[in-house]
């Protein structure tokens, strides 16, 4: 089976031109079939602020109201996505920038407004892999923005980690797939020290102990879910994207 | 030879949700291979105003400075493009939204800054048709935003009429191609009356007489250039996109 790397790059790297350039250089050097999934980081928040759109929050979580959806469609689907595609091309990697609406790659379901109405947020229904495989077979790099659609004409906001994990899992039937969550930390940390291997037992222990918190929890849940379905998973620094082993590796 | 329709939709239709819906409904009903090229109309201008970006004009022509490029990359490549793709899908047409950077479809050259520096504006170098043909052969509708790239990592702003004419001409080697410029008028008008057929002689006569002015001049120049290369060309109302004959037809 051919191998495939599904690489998610975090928002704080995208926010920083120098870090993003560094990452894209290394990413372009990664051999073999690969897919990039990006967030939009604080660019969308800043753009929203400049447009006078007040963040609408419930329990610390942002609501995707109609105005916010407009901003993320612009920033994720346009600004970030197209600039990454243009840069990758200049680095010798032919890329295609896509949202989940394009080629109907990711149909999603608008989240139930009860108990909390998160607005235009989509939960992935399925991943249509035919065109992704077609691109990969032709040495084209799909660059996915974290946008899906409801098949009724609406774009939806979907978490980039979720898309990365869903895409990696779906393609693991055709490829020996590796999922890399790249961000600005060396991996999962405990008291300033990198944890190089993590299994479910250790994860639960550290979560219960309050060592693993916040955004790392859904990321690890998604990682372990992909691992169970046969995907190799690591959480690592954006500077280590081209390395064979690095960061925190999830194990059974 | 298979037939192909390359359809350009004007900015004033995109500005108006009702007109755009009407157009997309009819567009989705057009049988056979088709490509949609859209502008961004005043949405980009309004977004620029909301962001406090002052239009930078020379001789009545807008300069694409770095801030303006950011806005049009967001609006054309993200907001307008992805919403059209999602809507087309809901109307039964599988679509893929692309800029000229995606799949390196449209490499362009940044315009010479002398005599006038128009900023991040690109002149089309070539159209790579392989992926466009691949999509069309699989009943996928390419939806092109008027963005190109310089192959050195920069997105460029390119006129949508130019892209439409270049794409139609390039694909006319593989398809019997028709180019439709759709907008909010019935066609080329003289004194409130539609001109149903136009050849080069009549065009020059009306241009010299001041009947044909402004934006219609480059549109007709592009149309006649495509016609010379074997493309069937008409300029018509967005309401007539699905009609066999309508508006002003260019003839030799």
Q: What gyration radius of chain A follows from the Cα positions, in whole Å?
A: 17 Å
Q: CATH homologous superfamily of chain A - what is it?
A: Acetylglutamate kinase-like
User: So what's the CATH class of chain A?
Assistant: Alpha Beta
CA-based shape of chain A: globular
CATH-level-2 architecture of chain A: 3-Layer(aba) Sandwich
The fraction of residues in strands of chain A falls at 15-25%
Number of domains of chain A: 1
User: CATH fold name of chain A, please?
Assistant: Carbamate kinase
Domain Aspartate/glutamate/uridylate kinase (chains A, B): 4-236
Family (chains A, B): Belongs to the acetylglutamate kinase family. ArgB subfamily.
Subcellular location (chains A, B): Cytoplasm
InterPro entries (chains A, B): AceGlu_kinase-like_sf, AcgluKinase_fam, ArgB, Asp/Glu/Uridylate_kinase
Question: Explain this structure to me?
Answer:
The structure is a homodimer. Chain A has a single domain (about 5-250), classed as 3-Layer(aba) Sandwich (Carbamate kinase), CATH 3.40.1160.10. Helix content of chain A is about 35%, strand content about 25%. Chain A contains eight helices and 16 strands. In chain A, the strands form five sheets. Chain A has an eight-stranded mixed beta sheet, sandwiched between helices. Chain A has a two-stranded antiparallel ribbon with strand order 3-4. The longest helix of chain A has 25 residues, at about 65-90. Chain A starts with a strand and ends with a strand. The model of chain A has no long low-confidence stretch (mean pLDDT about 95). Chains A and B meet through helix 4 and strand 5 of A and helix 4 and strand 5 of B.
């Amino acid at each position: 089976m051919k191998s495939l790397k599904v690489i998610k790059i975090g928002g704080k790297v995208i926010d920083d031109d120098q870090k993003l350039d560094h990452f894209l250089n290394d990413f372009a050097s990664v051999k073999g079939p690969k897919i990039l999934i990006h967030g939009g980081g604080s660019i969308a928040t800043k753009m929203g602020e400049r447009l006078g759109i007040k963040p609408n929050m419930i329990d610390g979580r942002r609501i995707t109201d109609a105005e916010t959806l407009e901003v993320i469609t612009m920033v994720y689907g346009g600004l970030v996505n197209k600039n990454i595609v243009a840069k990758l091309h200049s680095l010798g990697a032919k890329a295609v920038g896509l949202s989940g609406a394009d080629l109907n790659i990711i149909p999603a379901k608008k989240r139930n407004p009860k108990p909390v109405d998160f607005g235009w947020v989509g939960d992935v229904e399925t991943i249509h892999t035919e065109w992704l495989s077609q691109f990969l077979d032709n040495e084209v790099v799909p660059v996915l923005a974290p946008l899906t659609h409801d098949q009724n004409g609406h774009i939806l906001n979907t978490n980039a980690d979720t898309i990365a994990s869903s895409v990696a899992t779906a393609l693991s039937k055709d490829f020996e797939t590796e999922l890399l969550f790249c961000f600005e930390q060396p991996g999962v940390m405990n008291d300033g020290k990198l944890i190089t291997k993590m299994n479910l037992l250790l994860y639960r222990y550290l979560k219960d102990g309050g060592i693993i918190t916040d955004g790392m929890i859904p990321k690890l849940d998604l990682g372990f879910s992909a691992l169970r379905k046969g995907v190799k998973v690591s959480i690592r620094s954006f500077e280590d994207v081209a390395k064979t082993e690095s960061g925190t590796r999830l194990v059974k």
